[in-house]
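URGENT: need a sanity check before tomorrow's submission.

F., can you look over the Redoxin domain-containing protein record below? I want to be sure the sequence and structure line up before it goes out.
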Amino acid sequence: MKNLKPFIILLTLISTHINLIAQNAKVIDLSKRLYVGEQFTPPSSIKLMRGMENKINWKALYDKVVLIDLFETSCGSCIQIMPHLQELEKKHGNIFKVIIVTPEDKKTMTDFFHKNEYLKEHKVNLPVIYQDDYFRKMFPYKSIPQAILLYQGKVQAITSSGFITSDNILKLHQQGSIDLPLKDDFGKGNLLAASGSVTEILKAGVFFSGYQSDVNYQPWKFETDSVTGLYRSSIFNSGIYSALKSLMANAKLLDKYFVPRMDRVVWKVKDSTIYENFSANPKEVWLVDNGISYERYDRIKRPDSIQALEIMYDFESIYGVKIYLDKKLMPCLVLKSCVAVPSKEKKEGQMVYVGSKVFATFLDYVNQFPPVIDEVNIDTRIEVGNVKTLEELNKQLVVYGIRGEIEERKIDVLVVEEVNL
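Structure tokens as predicted:
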């Protein structure tokens, strides 16, 4: 079984999200921004660490495909992809060069590479431009990863890291240009304008579309549209399942502790892979083929929960798919009360959870055990370290008078169903 260390990953993702929110709150200067097709002027000076070079010869890189990989130590996806980028450079060393660029200082980056076991295990040693301000002004972002491809003095792509592949490197080098989905954190989705509709006379309407290349992912948003004055509901570049699941939450049809793990989803569809990314492809690559964008304009402003129900009906009547709750009998990890047994044993990787309900929810997110049912419902602080088996888990839980047992129970599941299947 998996180790409970993924808890740390989950908390890292939460802190990354908070970090990005803080970035978004800042006013970002777009005046020096470069676009695809524009000339790239290298910086006159940089601060460089790691890699095999003590400087970067930009002229020597003119006929190579250069990847500028924008990086911050809080970005888990950026860290995860580094070994892959190094392998690509090794494979295509005569035509491809990777340069990591970060706004963080040398001490932060030195400490990061010293402590990160994943990168040490994969022997990652790519050149890093640190304490950067130059590239950040030319390629501003609200979220990362963000990948910049340069070739023969021009910006050839501003995209997501999932599109940095052998095929795309070779194609760009051979053809001199490439058309990759644009990552634009400042682009605003507008299906109404794209459709050519006359906004001044629009009374109401629903617009479905696929992936929008020049728009960043946007979760559900309910707001008054400044152009039409109508009430606008929208989502951009989302998977269908993710969009429907969020609607269920907005409609207050899901308990706040319900974790829609994949073993709690029933697929009544011909091909579930068009709804959720079950492939090995990076999410952004999968979204190009399967992502959807949606806009709805209403004259009436409804509460978000009611509006979510209206939109769910749009998906059913126009897109032919619906989502709802049902019950299913399946093995569950049931947390039960038992006689507490004190222990002073030290727990490696110890984490603290305020109450059994919070602990059960984290267990569900980690997906190490079957779906969790909390029958204890206590507010006691629970401290649990790394475990690999249920036996090890129970050994730590018994201190709090809790024991987990695998039993079959009928529990809530999400059903995704094609209405004309």
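My own read: The chain has three domains: 24-175, 191-319, 327-418. Residues 1-25 have pLDDT under 50 and may be disordered. If you see anything odd, call me.
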